Give the backbone structure.
Amino acid sequence: MASITIRGVKKNYAKTQVVHGVDLDFASGEFVVILGPSGCGKSTLLRMIAGLEEISAGEIAIDGTVVNRLEPRERGCAMVFQNYALYPHMSVSQNIGYSLKVAGVPSAERQQRIQAVARTLELEHLLDRKPMALSGGQRQRVAMGRAMIREPKVFLFDEPLSNLDAKLRVQMRSEIRKLHRRLNATSVFVTHDQVEAMTLADRLVVMNGGRVEQVGTPGEIYTRPASRFVATFVGAPAMNILEGTVELDGLSLLGGSRRLAMARTGLPVGAKVAMGIRPEAVRLVAPGTAGALNATVDLVEELGAGRVIYVDLDGAPFSVMTSEAVHPEPGSQVGLKISPEDMHFFSSETGARLDVFKASVPEPAL
Amino acid sequence: MEKRVTFGKWTIGILFAVPQLLLIFTFFYWPAGQAVYWSLTLQQPWGGGNIWVGLDNFRSILSNADYWNSITASLVFAGISTGLAMFIALVLAALTDRQLAGSRLYRVVLIWPYGIAAPALAMAFRFILAPEAGFMAVVNRVWPGFWDPGLDGADAMASIIVAFSWKYVGYNFIFFLAAFQAIPRSLIEAAAMDGSGVIRRFWDVQFPLITPTIFFLLVINITESFQDSFGIVDIMTAGGPANATNLMVYKIYSDGFKGLDYSGAAAQSIILMLLIIVLTIFQFRFIERRVHYR
């Protein structure tokens, strides 16, 4: 168990900078998920913690010790790779026991520990097989076993589930979660899959373009996204964003073609904002209802438990998720009811969250 | 339905194979068959028919001490030059794999020696290793008489080994580098995370994974050292001094075309062919077991 402190960490490859100054603190025993689109620098950050990538600037400390200059083996981290990276010429038990062999652990003790790990991961009957003869899920478990056997202070996961099929992924997800509860080692898990991120994380770090957009519990990230990027990246279907201008008693949307009447928002009148509303927060009402927006139905996606209704709002795409038993026909008119308390506001210029009904509202440049 | 291209009549398939079969027959089976025939007969030096002598040619060769000396020299040459060429190439490739800056140039430059004809490179090495004017002249100045391939058989053997290895280092390097590059980066990283240092990683992960390449190069290098050494020997030492570098392939030439003993030379080439076949079978039987194919 160890805490991880990241201070002003940057990464350059030749002339391009891929990580622009990241500051993070991971508490001991915490399960942190770093979420972001591909190319956002999340894997690079993980590899810098592991020691596989040099740190261009800043500092990473594990348990208070700065590890910038330490070799991977001196950092006490274990890593599970995306493609598993099992040694193809070694059997499962040799794969799992390799780190102990390198460390010079006597053969008898090594076998004992391999057996113990294999039992935990239900790999006992596969110990003599080569990785070639294993299924994807089994390889994944061997990779986990190889990381576990060292009893590391820190577990690092680099998109370990992305090569599995959907069903196995769900199963492995809960296994990783259970394992973490048992071992209680600090874990950093990198993924681009938001469902994985939401379900696994104690704390979620959302990254974009080499910067940290937001750090918080999955609940916080969902209910109070700190930026327009986080708002649209987390949640499926993605949050609807409508560009608009703040008026004295409401909001003018889509270049003035639509209007939502609402009480004073606290935002300066005339400010250009992006209003966000989650598809699941929109209520469908009869067209023409007072205070509702009228829209034309484009497409209905049936999900079984509910349905996603894609509508056209003067050319702007907009989606509604409902579990009610409504089945509007494509081409028909519906009314969209949006409550002010479900709205999120972001600066049109910076994308930063604007907190309404609060004193500390940043003054957007006009 | 069958997705492959198939021929309605088997004759069409045969027709497509004919050009290749013709080439193999003309340039391999026919000469090899001729050699077998000659080796069992006594060929007149100026023409005029063959006399059937059975295995007499082989008996006379195998009872000749000169021939056994030639076999020993060939085996020494094959062993040392293959070992040297492969070891140097392996080290260079392992280092290049770690530090890839400028490796493109490296790769091109290192394949060039293989493209040089053996006699041309032998000529170059004859100058480089000349006892009175080359690199070794400096050593001879400090240590008079240390180096003289014209007089000392061991020096002569060392010269042809150096020349041959130089040619094959480049060839081996290309294959080794490709093999190293084919190992996924993440495997090396996983080993690093498992606490393995550079040298340990090499022996535990990289080396086992390039064993198919090592095996392939071993077969090629040994075979070539029996055959491709002719030009080097001919230009650098002409088999001397005192037969110290009279390798089997060179002895075939000198006995056959200088000594005009066609039948003896034919018998020698049959023995050389059998030796290469046996060595290759041996490698496949006993060394290939240690190879890890992925």
Observations:
- The mean pLDDT of chain B is 87.
- Residues 65-98 of chain B form the longest helix (34 residues).
